[in-house]
Design goal:
Layout: H1 16-23, H2 50-63
Length: about 70
């Protein structure tokens, strides 16, 4: 039986307090540069739902600025 282990994991800063409280873990630091990838998967070739199209268009404008 393991009573303690040295483990580190990443989590969003915005939920840090909740994670520490719920899982009884300690915050040890913060990373400045982290990348996340989000995927929208659809069976349709083109997005036809207006709300989904709006979200996808906004994401392209805000996330993929070259």
């Amino acid at each position: 039986m393991v009573e303690a282990a040295a483990v580190a994991f990443a989590a969003p800063t915005v939920v840090r307090k909740e994670i520490c409280r719920r899982y009884r873990v300690a915050w040890i630091g913060e990373l400045e540069r982290v990348r996340e990838r989000f995927y929208a998967i659809s069976v349709e070739r083109r997005i036809s739902h207006p709300a989904v199209r709006l979200i996808a268009d906004q994401a392209k404008r805000r996330l993929f600025i070259n």
